[in-house]
Every structure is written in C-alpha cells, then in structure tokens.
Predict the structure of Probable cyclic pyranopterin monophosphate synthase.
Amino acid sequence: MTDDPSPAEGSNPDPRTDAAEDLTHTTDEGDVQMVDVGDKPDSERRAVAIGEIHLRPATIEAIRADEVGKGDVLATARIGAIQAVKHTWETVPMCHQIPITNVDTEFDLGEDRIELAVAVETTGKTGCEMEALEGVTTGLNVVWDMVKAVEKDDDGQYPDTGIENVRVRDKEKRRK
C-alpha cells in the first residue's frame, strides 16, 4: 500500500475518504437530521432508474394478451410507480418532499422478464434519484402482485420470479 491518498487513474475514490465532512445526515453529536438545502439554487433535475422482474414465459404472454385475471398489469403497475414517486418523501427517512414536474414510465417485455424504466423530473434544490428508484421498485412489486397467482408453483413458491438489477441509469442537473 502506498502513502499516496489519490486514487489510481481510472479507479473510483474511496467514498469513505473525508467521511466526517460528508455525513450531512448526521450532526456533530451523531444525531440524524435532514440535510439543509435551503441555500442551494434551484436546478432542473432528471433521474432515470431501471429494474426488471423475471417471470415465466407463459406469464409474459398472458400480460401481452391482457389475460391476467386481476386486470391490466402494466396499467396498474404504471399507476403504482407514479404514486410511489409522489410519495417517496413519506417512505424514505430524511428525504425531502420535492415538486415532481413529470414522471414517465416505460415497460419493455422480453421473453421471460419485464424491464421498467421510470424517469422523474423536478425543478428544485435536490435530486430525484430516490423518487425514480421508488417508482421502479413499486412498479415491479405491482407486477408481481398482479401475477402472483399464475407465478406460484404447486408448493406456493415463486421459483422463477425475481426482481433484479434495480439501479439509477441516468442523472442530470441543469441550472436555471
């Protein structure tokens, strides 16, 4: 190990470096607090999160044909995703309530999976990544809930069903 604290070219710096200065959710006494963004300028912000749910091919075909007994799976999941975006501040501790200016959802049906992308836009003092992530996870949970009767095996388990690869794909910030 070298004494040089700078990261090697092309590597990611250790996020714990200068951690005491970066712990803005913690006071000097160690108490949790909401980050004060009051002095930050408003910016146009956009975040896109994606994730996928793996399902049986027969379930995907039932969704395509709108033959799932509970109703239109993707329409219901879209509503759930949008509602989750709007209520993120209520479920993620210390998350600011932000003005959501737009939410777009896009479903991509594969042979044995559905990918969901949720794009969130806001104009404000803090980003909207958490809102996009909440939209994706809730939207995919709604899909699972809508199809769970056909996804269960004879033992009531879900051997082919799984939500994976949830992540922020894009993040943008533009000063007003």
In short: Confidence is low (pLDDT under 50) at residues 1-11, 15-21.
